[in-house]
């Protein structure tokens, strides 16, 4: 997974974007890629949405030009509000080719002229989610009180326990992320097999709901990682995607039972030992 040998020196304005922790496999990419890519002439966007809920991130030590975070992943509420942090100097290099409401100082339609707002305001199209935003301040206060980043010690232990249990089922569990705790977070992606056949992820997701477990199924908004993990032959997948109306079951049938989605368990600040035990019991019941 080390892209650095392939990362050529940038020839023009270039952006290197990567997740500090993958939302698919939980793998944590080295943060020194940031300085490395900058040294090759790139601006760097670090997607820290899955990383900061359990880790402290120093922008002095990791001087990414842009960092994306998502508040509900840190403290559960509010959804729909995140932040894209940008260094002033990096922000000044951005040029927009379009604009939306709230991002201009003035606009004259008849004269076909407008002037953009400066700084971050020039990028915030539309009405911000202002009714939800006060909750962010409360969330950050609470986050400091409970020392959110320190949770990774407890969550590493829980993740290790879960991985150990999954490994015990051998080929009845197909895991997609790193098997040990080096360079991984508390996101665990897998599929289950019964009698040698993959259990459709939707079935596992639905049955988990009945015992109060929220397991996410699908490709987790990361189609690239999913296709690679599921090892789809590109031509075959293309033919299946172009054939008639799309549905997950049809796509699965066309790929002759290959995985078309996975299950993802994200352990977080609210997860207890009992939750993991319930998950393990549920998987045991499914794989038989
Ligand atoms: C690394 C990463 N980036 C981005 C996202 C998407 O964030 P949001 O749900 O706030 O759009 C996720 C969600 O799982 C994620 O883990």
Structure description:
This protein is of the alpha+beta class and 288 residues long. It has 10 helices and 11 strands. The protein has helices spanning 33-39, 71-75, 88-91, 133-146, 151-168, 201-210, 223-230, 234-242, 248-254, 273-287; strands at 15-19, 43-47, 66-70, 82-86, 104-108, 113-116, 173-175, 187-194, 197-198, 216-218, 262-266. The strands form 3 sheets. Strands 7, 8, 9, 10 and 11 form a 5-stranded antiparallel β-sheet that branches. It has a 4-stranded mixed β-sheet with strand order 1-2-3-4. A hairpin with a 4-residue loop joins strand 5 (104-108) and strand 6 (113-116). The radius of gyration is 22 Å and the shape is globular. The mean pLDDT is 94. Pyridoxal-5'-phosphate binds next to loops.
């Amino acid at each position: 997974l080390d892209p650095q040998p392939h990362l050529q020196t940038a020839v023009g304005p270039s952006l290197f974007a990567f997740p500090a922790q993958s939302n698919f496999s939980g793998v944590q990419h080295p943060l020194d890629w940031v300085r490395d890519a900058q040294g090759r002439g790139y601006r760097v966007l670090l997607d820290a949405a899955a990383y900061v809920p359990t880790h402290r991130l120093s922008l002095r030590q990791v001087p990414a030009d842009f960092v994306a975070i998502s508040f509900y992943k840190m403290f559960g509420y509010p959804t729909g509000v995140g932040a894209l942090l940008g260094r002033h100097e990096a922000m000044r290099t951005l040029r927009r080719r379009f604009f939306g409401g709230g991002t201009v100082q003035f606009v004259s339609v008849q004269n076909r002229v407008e002037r953009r707002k400066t700084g971050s305001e020039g990028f915030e199209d539309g009405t911000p989610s202002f009714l939800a935003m006060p909750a962010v301040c409360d969330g950050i206060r609470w986050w400091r009180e409970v020392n959110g980043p320190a949770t990774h010690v407890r969550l590493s232990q829980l993740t290790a326990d879960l991985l150990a249990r999954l490994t015990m089922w051998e080929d009845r569990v197909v895991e997609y992320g790193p098997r040990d705790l080096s360079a991984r977070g508390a996101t665990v992606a897998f599929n289950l097999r019964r009698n040698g056949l993959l259990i459709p992820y939707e079935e596992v997701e639905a049955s988990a709901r009945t015992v109060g477990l929220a397991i996410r199924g699908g490709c987790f908004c990361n189609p690239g990682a999913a296709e690679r993990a599921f090892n789809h032959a590109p031509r075959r997948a293309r033919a299946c995607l172009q054939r008639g109306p799309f549905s997950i079951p049809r796509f699965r049938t066309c790929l002759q039972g290959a995985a078309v989605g996975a299950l993802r368990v994200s352990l977080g600040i609210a997860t207890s030992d009992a939750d993991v035990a319930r998950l393990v019991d549920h998987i045991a019941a499914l794989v038989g």
